[in-house]
Amino acid sequence: ALPIFVLSGGGTAGHINPALAVADELRGRGHDILFFGTPDHIEAKLAVEAGFDFVGLKVSGFDKARPWTLLSSTAKIARATNEVVSRFKTRRPDAVATFGAYVSIPVGRAAGKLGVPLVIHEQNSVPGMANAYLAKRADATALTYEQSRSALKSKTPAVVTGNPVRASFETCSRQAGRALLGIPEDALVLLVFGGSLGARHLNTAVCAMKERLLSLEGLHIIHSTGSLDYDSVCEQLMLSAEEKERWHVLSYIDRMGDVLAASDLVVSRAGASSLAEIMTLGVPAVL
Prior knowledge:
- This protein has helices at residues 13-28, 42-49, 69-90, 104-114, 129-135, 174-181, 200-207, 210-214, 230-237, 241-244, 256-261, 272-281, and strands at 4-8, 32-37, 53-56, 95-98, 118-122, 140-143, 159-160, 188-193, 219-224, 247-250, 265-268, 285-286.
- By secondary structure, it is an alpha/beta fold.
- The strands form 2 sheets. It has a 7-stranded parallel β-sheet, sandwiched between helices. Strands 10-9-8-11-12 form a 5-stranded parallel β-sheet, with helices on one face.
- Helix 12 (272-281) links the parallel strand 11 (265-268) and strand 12.
- Helix 1 (13-28) packs parallel to helix 2, helix 3 (69-90) packs across helix 4 and helix 4 packs parallel to helix 5.
- It is globular, with a radius of gyration of 20 Å.
- 43% of the residues are buried.
């Protein structure tokens, strides 16, 4: 049987895309990949679209504003841990790598219970609760930023690796991106996005600049709103048919590499994975 690697991460593309970048590399080296995530979040879609076997775990986070949710969260994590342990006993993985979010906790705990090597990767400068918990148990800890080291009490010395980006970003081109979007080669393109879930403050600010932006001749705006804000942004903008030819409103961008390559300027939240992708393509950005 081929070596099998289990990867886990969830909630946002910021956790998922680095995991998929590593999964792509491992698959290219001839390994089997099994991806664990939450069934109703973005990882279920992205992992399957990338061709990986996916297992959904029903977990939920702990809301500090509602302390009683700690009980339900703990119970769900315990049940999910038992489910993962059972799966690992059926086919033991060679290693487990987790990339953050609550769904990573039962996967990491199961690895620890069975003595499977556990690697965690922290994308952000301020580590999340899941990685802070698993770092104490992990056999190896990888960081995007040196500044994260002091916030993680890792069992072994952490290594700064940077943030993995999928190899497909290296082959993206301005011409291919513009052909995908149907935007002329000589147009100026502004890309606005707030990460996979969107950013309301960013959406509101850009909508308020509608008249000013559309007054710039030849400017096209690619505006990724996030699914929760899509309808609200459409209502705020009230674009005419003519304006829609230059202001492209999307709830989510599937082929972010191509769209970034097509852009002249990015306005974005400073999410760790967004920064890594923007830097890979060298697009000027306002963050």
